[in-house]
Amino acid sequence: MLTNLPFTIDALHQAYRQGVSADQVIRESLTRLSNIADEGIYLYVASDSQLSKAVADLGPFDLTLKPLWGIPFAVKDNIDAVDMPTTAACKAFSYIARQDAYVVSLLKQAGAILIGKTNLDQFATGLVGLRTPYPAPKNAIDAKLVPGGSSSGSAVAVAHGQVCFSLGTDTAGSGRIPAALNNIVGLKPTLGSISSRGVIPACRSLDTVSILALTVENAAQVYACCRYYDQQDPFSKPYHGPAKQNIPVNFTVAVPDSESLILDEPAQKKAYEQALNYWRQKGAKLVEIDFKPFYEVSKLLYEGPWVAERLAALAPFMAKHRSALYPVTCEIIESAHKFSASDAFNAYYRLRALSRQIASILTKIDVICVPSMPGLVYKSDIEVDPIGPNSRLGTYTNFVNLLDLCAIAIPGKTRSDGYPSSITLIAQNGCDAFIHALAADYHANQGDYLGATSHKIPVPDRLTTTTNIMQMTSNHEIAIAVVGAHMTNLPLNHQLTDKGGRFLTSAQTDSHYRLYQLGNRPGLIRDDDGQIIDLEVWALPKNKIGDLIAQIPSPLSIGSITLSDKQQVKGFLCEPHGLKDSRDITHFGGWRAFCQAESL
């Protein structure tokens, strides 16, 4: 049963429901690793005793308490995992971690099982995946290609379907580039939304943990489990974006104009054009922008004084162990010596000026869509020039963290030459849920296979009200239907999320309701001469219901709402006396559609 099972969260959890054990899944993961002809993926594989303990610690199958129950994952070997070595791909640097990195501890608490530590470009410096003194991982699609870095092993393990997801890091593209080269998803979150405590720094002010997965849905599920503020990490920030977001009817996509678009191959150009056509078909408005300011920001990262952050992180170690560094890595880090303190301030001032210029562009658009890279890079290219092709790979990635943006790399249709294509969606910080929604739609409709496996992209499991909502909630939760400002990405949604609420599904009432505008919120009433109204169903802890009711102003109340499939849930209703002088907006079909039409 497990041999041909795609390692996605949904598929594995379904297998568990059918009686498969966590121990069987872990053994299958190790079998898959042994069947891959690549000794460069892992630098450390968990021992039998470590894996047995992890399985024993799971407890009973309960996705409410542990949403990643029994899911195998890997972490890049610059991220600490207790009782495992951390090397950052440098033997002289190696130590045994005394505790988990905060992000690893959160994933274990969510039920994920750590398989091991993956190879990388030494000290996370590089985008090719070959800068390691150990055997380098092989690209999962074609061994002639570079695997991409610096999270090379993490990407290759996922692409082969050996683990469900992995952690990388992404300072300048180290998660997005290997994802693109191995036909998987690379999620680069808003800076500070995932703690970096327990992660070896590269450029500490720009570092973030990244998530690599076979599907966007899986990457987003993992992100939800580790997106927590960490008071002990000075770079951690509370995440204020929505947990989930739907694709709006109208949205604007910015793309590089013809003069600033950089593409190296005809097949890459054609694949990118196909991606843009997809967004046009979705109803998006495409706007060309001058990308030269973004490229200038990129140059500040490696051609400017920010490289000194890498030296700051490693200077004490390099003073004693310089010869232990990979030659190209050492050359890059030591280039920091040519910059002065005044250079650093001047570069910072220039970044601020460019950021202001770019901010004026971002306010007019919703998302940027770029190729994940200008073109493919082969191992033979690196043999001739170890730095040039690496820099080229960072064309569309290097600027993202300097500008404090979020991004996600997504596979598209296979290129005309048989190689994978990939685009990257970029948006302002906190807009992660928005680009994840777009990415999931794109991947489901444009992607071909999961990584290097033979499994087709699964149709996203979009919950509908034909699913028994009672089965979607735990014994400690109650389903609540919301029709207005409490919906995803609307002003009062935080009143649900702050209380531990979680999104279940978008749904509709039956055809016996009417909707009214009561100032800046709607009022829903039952009316035999009504129509279907859009809503969302959320799960809220039962011990928080009282707190929510206390925040509901008159004439709103909580009552029973009948959904389109005749299920009944508790939800927001309006007392009839509150409809005096209100506006009937039933014909809009829902509050969100009304707000969009009225530009509220």
From TrEMBL:
Domain of life where this protein originates: Bacteria
Domain Allophanate hydrolase C-terminal: 479-595
Matching Gene3D superfamilies: 1.20.58.1700, Amidase signature (AS) domain, Gamma-glutamyl cyclotransferase-like
InterPro entries reported for this sequence: AH_C, Allophanate_hydrolase, Amidase, Amidase_dom, AS_sf
Keywords, in A-Z order: Hydrolase
Record-annotated Amidase domain positions: 25-432
One annotated GO molecular function: hydrolase activity
PANTHER family given in the database record: GLUTAMYL-TRNA(GLN) AMIDOTRANSFERASE, TRANSAMIDASE
Protein name in UniProt: Allophanate hydrolase
Species assigned in the record: Psychromonas ingrahamii (strain DSM 17664 / CCUG 51855 / 37)
Lineage: Bacteria, Pseudomonadati, Pseudomonadota, Gammaproteobacteria, Alteromonadales
